[in-house]
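Issue 218. Parser rejects a valid record. Input:
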Amino acid sequence: MNLSIAIVGLPNVGKSTLFSALTKREVKISPIPFSTIDPNKAQVFVPDERLDQLAKLNPQSKVQPAIIEFVDVAGLIKNAHKGAGLGNQFLAQIRECQLILQVLRGFDKGIENVLGKINPQEEAEIVNLELLMKDLQTLEKILQKLEKEKDKEKLPLLQKIKENLEKGVAIRDLNLEEKEKEMIKDYQFLSQKPILYLLNSSSKESFSFPFIDLCLDLKEELEIGQFSEKELKELGIKSNLDLVIKACYNKLDLVTFYTLAGKKETRAWPLKRGENILKAAGKIHSQFEKEFKRAEVINWKELIKIGSFEEAKKLGKIKIVGKDYQVQDGDVIEIKI
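Output the parser choked on:
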C-alpha cells in the first residue's frame, strides 16, 4: 500500500510551509494565492523508536523505516467542484491519497487571507462541502451507469449514500459496514477519506474547536528545520513535526511489523490493522504471498530481551503461524516459502 497524504486547505493557510518543513524540500512559498499549481510530492520516514532498537541487534544492516508520501495540493476555494480556481484539477489530486490533512489558518500576519477573517471552523466547512459536492457529481455518473446495468447490489447502497450527501453528511460519517466499504472502494470518494485538522497557530488557547487534532506554528517549524541536530540539542529546541507524521499513521489505523533480512536490512512495514499474514507477506514480495507455507513470529520486545532471532528459536520463543494469523503491531516476522 502506497501511503499518501493530501495536504489541503484554502490558499495562504500554510500548506506549502508544512510540506517544506516535513520533507526538507524547498518549494515555492508565496503570499499570492494559487502559487502551487502542480502538486509537490515527497516521501518522509515514519519515526519509530522500536525500529531503532531492533537495528542495534544488527548494527551492520541497512535500516529502512516505513514511508509516507505527502502531496501538497493547491489551495481550494468555494465552488472548487465547479472548477473555480482550477478546483476540479486540485480535487482530482486528492483522489489517489488515503488521508486528508487539512491545514487551518490561525494566524494574521499581513499575508492575504482569502476568507477575509480568521475562522478555522468556516475553512473546514468550505473544504468539506467541496469534497461532498464533488462526490455528488461523481455519484450521479455512477448511478446512471448502474441503473442501465440494473445492478441490484450496489444501487441501493449508492442511493443511500447520495441521499446522505445531499443532506451534507460525509461518507466517512455513515458508519458503513466493511462489506459496504469494500463495494465502493474503487470509486475513491473524497468524503470517505479520513481527515485530520491541523491549526497553523502559535497558540490554540484563542480557539475552542474540539475537532482540531493538532496545533503547530508552521513558520517556526520550518525555521527549526534549518538547524542541525547538534544545534537543536544545544539550544534546547525540539520540532513537533513527528507528531504530524505519527498522527497521520494512526488515523489510517495502521500497525507496523518488522523484518530482519539477515545482516542486510532491518525494516519496518505498515499494514492495515486486522489484516492477516498473507497480506504482510505480499508487501514484502508478491512471491512470498503466492508460495506462503508458514511464518515465524516474535514480539519486538521479546526479541530485544533475547538478543537475536536465532537465540529466540533455541529458547522456543518463536511462534509458528499459518496464513490466517492476524498480524499484531510490533511483530517481527520471517516468512517461509
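Fixed in the parser; the record now loads. Residues 146 and 155 are 7 Å apart (CA to CA).
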